[in-house]
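Quick start: what a row looks like.
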Amino acid sequence: MKLPSAVGRPASAEGSSERESPSIMNGARLLVRGLKQEGVEQIFSLSGDHINPIYDACLDFRVRIIDTRHEAAAAFMADAWARVTGRPGVFVVTGGPGHTNALTGIATAFLQGCPVVAISGAPETFLKNQGAFQELDQLSLVRPITKWAAVVNDPRQIPEHVATAFREAVSGRPGPVHLTIPIDVLSRDAGEVPLASPHAGIPHPSFEGGPDLIQKALALLRQAERPILIAGSGAWWAQAGSELEQFVEMTRIPLFTIGLARGLISDDHPLCFGYADPLLNEVAKEFVHADVICILGKRVDYRLAFGGPGLFDPRARIIQVDIHAAEIGRNRQVDVKIATDARTFLAACVVQVGEPWPERPWLGHLSRVAQSWRTALEAGETSAEIPIHPLRLCRELREVLPPEATVAIDAGDFLQWARIALPSRRPGRWLRLGPLGTLGAAIPFGIAAKLARPREPVVVVTGDGGFGYHGLELHTALRHDLPIVVVIGNDGAMGMERQIQKALYGPDRVVGCELGLVHYEKMVEALGGHGEFVEAPDEIRPALLRAFDAGRPACVNVMIRDVPSPLAEVSIANKRALMR
């Protein structure tokens, strides 16, 4: 298969040549100079009157503007840039509706714990509280979904505010931060203002009682008959992949990954048993039999059934490692509490483990469960039915994609099949939505991933419902020469909700879910991209190969069967219980 590649336009191609020495160091130029010092080479944005000075300054400092078709998409792209690169993503939107449109993107980053620097323009400071056009209390709106937020009222404050924003975004548990900068502050001459000290990157802290706690944790794991290790996004942010692999290979403890930790160790590794989600991975249902559970950089939230008896044995010993101490012990009593980042913990463990531990029978048991699960999926993966079974589509996609491909997976019922059947083989190449489950975000995610990795294939897997949110961002991908491939599993509906309504209220009481047959691939063709329409299983692979060979953004619109996923079935059962 020929893999697509892209070389983006140079930063100075956004409208005029670079000016080496700006005659006026106004607030906007101080802002962009500060972003440049932090290593920012591009911002995600949608133009607006309040932020025109920033656009002008980007020309001076050769900062590329990836201009989107909706402010939420700009926020999602900044979030995905952070997830893929490990560095803060930056987006800039105008005030008022530009700011409010971006709030869902900020909230998505907040719940996932992604370092995003969100910058909004605003009306002039001297018009505050006078009813100016698009005047809002932007700070009050954004504070609940950011780690830190501020309004800049003097251009000379901008360098220090930028440095503070980046430090706050990556310190402790990462997350989004926000600056509102009114247009007069951006436009005013600030004179000579020195640069502030840039942040020093994500720290790797020590922790109190380190050696004793490490020994206690290792003793529990060594003595266990049925231990498991669950690695979450904290392991990715700590850049702990090498240490994680060393640790599991030395201890032979079965590993499950979730969130951004997916791919830190390949799902193909004999000690990695895939997704730490029992609704989508039959092997994870064995958590209930584990006697010692080490949870590394993962909240004990709904994904882990809040640590309850439905997933974990109440008698199981729990080791929890998290950089955010407040998370340790939430929802479940913990036997060993270690407040540090995953890399620091694992590096200390590797030193103390010494000789490799013997293999337990437990490992063989999990391997047999995994093989049985793969066998159970084969009926759907090999199905020749029309419309196409979702698992057949996923199998064809899996066999086409190389290990280095980045996969962005949207929300919806079809996408649960993709989460089941598409493995994660490399770090930072499995993009999911996170705890907010923001339907439609996968297309902006994929565009940002392609910007970060222009020579590697990027595929977005979405449903027809999800495509409707940000399908027009393929125009953004076209304009910026970012050839992603969007694969739509099209069941003609908002599939998850249709499944729930049919089950709870009857097939004749489905409302507000039906979308019908829409040729989304023709929309993409009209924009200038490549389109494929697929109705039969044997058409899938040739269509995918043509899409990847096209060298421009592509849409493969695949008609699929209306098959409830395991997650939909559990959701229906839970809702029926509420109705009793």
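That is the whole record. The domain at 210-367 is CATH 3.40.50.1220 (Rossmann fold). The radius of gyration is 24 Å.
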